[in-house]
Write a structure and sequence with these properties.
Chains A, B: Keywords: Amino-acid biosynthesis, Aminotransferase, Histidine biosynthesis, Pyridoxal phosphate, Transferase. The structure is a homodimer. By secondary structure, chain A is of the alpha/beta class. In chain A, 36% of the residues lie in helices and 14% in strands. The first copy, chain A, has two domains: 122 residues, Aspartate Aminotransferase, domain 1; 219 residues, Type I PLP-dependent aspartate aminotransferase-like (Major domain) (Aspartate Aminotransferase, domain 2, 3-Layer(aba) Sandwich).
Chain lengths: 351, 351
């Protein structure tokens, strides 16, 4: 604490991301990164963009990247917003669509950054408890509110809400903005983007960090009605005229265009997730039905915090959340087959 | 306007950056970009960073870049904050140190993004008029306030306030944060960074966009007391865990290290500025005494808006601000000698 801090800053409890350790080489299954490298075409595009043009500001409107995303997703360019990672897109969305004094709703177990954004912008919220099986209860989101946000698939449970239920929530809250955070949707879920033409209150947020192996490049985007997108652009232009550098613009566009590579790598991750689940069950774990690039697992007899630490000791990093309801779970990112085999081998030694 | 917009968004009037035209090739003297390419070492570092490591998140604390900046500037690492362009650093500073209901002070003529940040965060402000020669009046900043910000050299005047005056403002406002925006200081001014050990309320903000020819990479930074820097990091970690991508981290560090290149290119710009001024005066312009990488010029008989349009017509882009007190000025970025000769040739044809 410092006497010069603003009132808002004094109240803030920042989000804590998963660790990026440098002490030794780990099998890194703690921050839901993709185990496969980015598209070689994206890397080549980045190298090509690394030249004297860097002296010039990037395109402030991200016009070309928006165009590529729109083509790829079958939407209009004015339905696309681009930001410096989906965290930035989320932050702008809270500022753009939610008001202090009108509590928004999100699940009690979800991305733990949402309450931090609320603190930052002075927005009140109420949490809706997941049911006993960690499903998001649709009825909970049919009450009076100032806006709604949830992740689908949800984090860290990995559970996916079917599109009919998503649509019900969007439709029944037509006067409020409903934000669906689809960071993990490309690993088996279905995107709500097909609903944006129908519902002017629906905003879908995605990222290249997971499914396009570009966590290190920081590109997120939002899809929705042109009115919502204009709002996001106005917030962005009141914060930073140029949020995405020339290199990231070039690499992201090429990664999006390389659909064959995207399909291949996401299929590999889904394949790995499918065999990892039963293997973990054999070892005494109970798993949620995850459609994300991670599994969420609780062991019948062994304490999760103990397992987290023991795995770390043996060179395998996973994520443990010391929070009510989920403090006996581990979130384990899906790595390569080889990494998962090694992880299971280590677990066998521990159990 | 859209019915889903928040109250804050409805009130926002976004900042409008200088145009980045694509219709034809211009001599581009409108957004204060550096005419020289970035350090070849920086470009090489970027190419080297373009590999499979992009699948991993960047260092959330920007540890290595902070270390390089600290070494280069002779400060401690905990006195350095890094952001996605100095606009982002400015935005975080407004959130971190200024409060609604406690009006901050800035000059009536300065970077026009400051009032936009105030709108975004609901912060009130009072403007202090520059004197008739466009100097920032020190006494104006010795009244009750909720914080102070100004650019030094100021924009778009280019005028520099001597460090003794800066120190007086900082010292007399020891209970408030004073932010000095030094985007242009490397072209002949003196940085207030040497005062940060002495004054816990001083924050100095700089950028690689101008003096390091890296507008396209988006790197800004702030220097100040560790308590202020911790505050900025907390705001950043409540907004976006990873604001700077791996490529930008690598390129920026190398650009900072290449001090020889930096010294060479900034000396060239200062040299060009020195001969351009008298040439413009010969053509009937009156100039402020700019220590920035631009000149601010008003013609004795010809209208600035006319000149702006006529120059554009002839392939030379400069910046015109249709604002009280400065609507008969042109802000002309210092380009290469060749570009400035061409600009003067075109002006001679027009006058």
């Amino acid at each position: 604490m410092n006497k010069y801090w603003s009132d808002v800053l004094k109240r803030l409890e920042p989000y804590v991301p998963g660790e990026q350790p440098k002490d030794k080489k780990y099998i890194k299954l703690n921050t839901n990164e993709n185990p496969y490298p980015p598209s070689p075409r994206a890397i080549e595009a980045i190298r090509q963009a690394a030249d004297e043009r860097l002296r010039l500001y990037p395109a402030p409107d991200c016009d070309e990247l928006k165009h590529v995303l729109a083509e790829n997703l079958g939407v209009k360019k004015e339905q696309v917003f681009v930001g410096n990672g989906s965290d930035e897109v989320l932050a702008f969305s809270f500022a753009a669509f939610f008001n202090p004094g009108e509590p928004i709703l999100f699940p009690d177990i979800t991305y733990t950054f949402y309450p931090v954004y609320c603190q930052l912008y002075g927005i009140d919220y109420r949490t809706i408890p997941l049911d006993a099986d960690f499903n998001i209860p649709v009825e909970g989101f049919l009450q009076d509110n100032g806006g709604i946000i949830f992740a689908n698939p949800n984090a860290p449970t990995g559970k996916f809400m079917d599109l009919a239920s998503v649509e019900k929530i969007v439709k029944e809250n037509i006067e409020r903005v409903v934000v669906i955070d689809e960071a993990y949707v490309d690993f088996g879920g279905q995107s709500a983007v097909k609903l944006i033409d129908k519902y002017p209150n629906l905003l879908v947020i995605k990222t290249l960090s997971k499914s396009h192996s570009l966590a290190g490049l920081r590109i997120g985007f939002a899809l929705g009605n042109a009115g919502l997108i204009e709002g996001l652009d106005r917030v962005k232009n009141s914060f930073n005229s140029y949020t995405i550098d020339r290199i990231a613009l070039a690499g992201a566009a090429e990664a999006i265009k390389d659909t064959a590579y995207f399909e291949k790598t996401r299929a590999k991750i889904i394949h790995t997730r499918k065999w990892v689940g039963p293997e973990l069950e054999k070892l005494g774990f109970r798993l949620t039905d995850s459609l994300a690039n991670f599994v969420f697992a609780s062991h019948a007899s062994l304490d999760s915090e103990y397992l987290f630490k023991a795995l770390r000791e043996k060179g395998v990093l996973v994520r443990y959340f010391n929070k009510p309801r989920i403090n006996n779970y581990l979130r384990i990112t899906i790595g390569t087959d080889q990494e998962m085999e090694q992880m299971i081998k280590v677990l066998k030694e521990l159990i």
